[in-house]
Amino acid sequence: MNKLNKEEKTRIISELQDKFGKAKGVVFTDFRGLNVEEITTLRNSLRSAAIEYKVVKNTLAKRASAGTPVEGVKDVFAGPVGIAVGYDDPALLVKKVLEYSKSNEKLQIKGGVVEGSICSPDQIRSISELPPREVLLSMLAGAMQSPLGKLAGLLHSTVTQFAYALGALKNKKESGQ
């Protein structure tokens, strides 16, 4: 890699720190053994899902992580590290990176940060098995709707029974007079 001057390093650190701060998910990979064509393929597949993939010097990445949710994973910055950053759906980020790593075993997952939580490679794999966000939200809505429907039915039943009781009481009083 070319020698960077101080202004370039400062700019890179600032940009990366901004990305780390805005990201919903960050996945760190070891790309050892991947050639330029394979990294380009990876970048293109991630870009289609609005995910960035960067290779940055470890010292710059460590400095950029200060004060961000990524700060706790400084130990991953050893050897060649690629950084996948997603701003929308962290599960999609994880799925896309793992999808590529399954098709090219040279790409290894080193860890990540998802929604501010530090994740091991195994936890990253577990997240990739989750359904998409929209499916999870619809499942949640369905789970919330069921008890509300039962409550509405129960309240309706109680009101109906009360109305019948009042009607019966009225009939009894009318017939007793």
Textual characterization of the structure:
It is a single chain. The chain is an alpha+beta fold and about 180 residues long. The protein has 2 domains: about 120 residues, Ribosomal protein L10, N-terminal RNA-binding domain (Alpha-Beta Plaits); about 45 residues. About 60% of the residues lie in helices and about 15% in strands. It has 6 helices and 5 strands; from the N terminus they run αβαβαβαββαα. Strands 2-3-1-4-5 form a 5-stranded antiparallel sheet. A hairpin with a 2-residue loop joins strand 4 and strand 5. Helix 4 crosses helix 5. The protein is elongated. The model has no long low-confidence stretch (mean pLDDT about 85).
Structural class: alpha+beta
Strands of the widest sheet, in order across it, are 2-3-1-4-5
Report the order of strands and helices: HEHEHEHEEHH
Structural domain count: 2
Number of alpha- plus pi-helical segments: 6
CATH class category label of the largest domain: Alpha Beta
Task: Name the CATH homologous superfamily of the largest domain.
Answer: Ribosomal protein L10, N-terminal RNA-binding domain
Span of the ends, CA to CA = 104 Å
Tell me the Rg in angstroms.
28 Å
Low-confidence stretches: none
Q: What amount of the residues lies in strands?
A: 5-15%
> How much helical structure, as a percent, in the residues?
55-70%
- Outline the biggest β-sheet: 5 strands, antiparallel
Described by the principal axes of the CA atoms, the overall outline is elongated
- Per DSSP E runs of 2 or more residues, the count of β-strands stands at 5
Report the CATH topology name of the largest domain. Answer: Alpha-Beta Plaits
Mean pLDDT across the residues is 85
What CATH architecture of the largest domain would you give? 2-Layer Sandwich
